[in-house]
Predict the structure.
Amino acid sequence: MAISIKISKTSQSRIHLCDFENIEFGKIFSDHMFRVDYEDGKWQNPQILPYGPIEISPALSAIHYGQSIFEGMKAFKNPAGEAQLFRPIDNINRLNKSAVRMGMPEIPEELFLGGLKQLVAIDKDWIPTKEGSALYVRPFMFATDDYVGVRSSINYTFMIFCCPVNSYYPKPIKVKVEKKYVRASAGMAGYAKAAGNYGISMLPTAEAKKEGYDQIIWTDGRTHENVEESGTTNLFFVMEDKLILTPRIDGNILEGITRASCIHLLKEEGYEIQERDISVKEIIEATKANKLTDAFGTGTAAIIAKIAAIGFEGTDYFLPEAESRKVSNWLYNTIYQIQTGKIADQNNWVMPVE
Ligand code: COI
């Protein structure tokens, strides 16, 4: 069933103000946004309207009690100039999984996808084509009750906006193993893309930045012995260019769509992948023995973020030069070329917009 969406287009596009050669991540927004409201137990009034501020109550439930979730996905142009999305159904499923965990309503796939495709089709000219760039798509849902009592909100808003972006990390990153703060533990909401999971990372990340790092590596909340994920990405460690380790899905880490794509492509290429608990000790010992040939984070925004150095208990352990990284270089090129339609998509990951 096709979704009927009310469309009000802007009378004045801002696209001429965007310098597509020098885009800063997350600061430029395309002309339109999608919005649908959950009221009286159902999603109603889907609309595409000019991007801009929205009116909210100071008592907005999402602000006070944190029922707020989001997704990140990307749209690209293929060589024929057609817009395409990368694995949008996986994002829809993950948003709904986050919604369930946060006591929020799920959004029907056809409504999400209908709004998404129409929005990206309308703002298609905002999709940048420079190497490494994309149109970053940010779907999100938040509780809208005007009520200060603590209970699950009755009303919600779901929205999508888009930003033309370049790579999130312009150069390899220095990461610090975090042993003081905890992101998630058994029974919490670590797997959900909940705003609060990012909120609690701000202080630890700011402290790491003061020490000269770009990001932190979270460790498990119980023992702080095992690595979990980085602030913005899932993690992969490559031993002697052969064996690849990544933390297992344990309810605490984000079930990354780029992570899943990387595992799939690496297996197809014949690499041995182990999804398991990985101790910080194992990683540090491998760097000391020059066995850690590559390490990187994966995520929608970052795609593949090479790790330049790992800081642990006051010492920095450096990894090989970025150019020599066999696995992460191959992986980045392969994924990005699939996303931009330059090599065949054998896994049905790419979805045309129009
Ligand atoms: C993403 O990769 O989409 C995220 O949500 C992480 C954030 C750094 C933008």
The pocket of 2-OXO-4-methylpentanoic acid is lined by residues 72, 168, 232, 299-301 (CB under 6 Å). The longest strand covers residues 134-143.
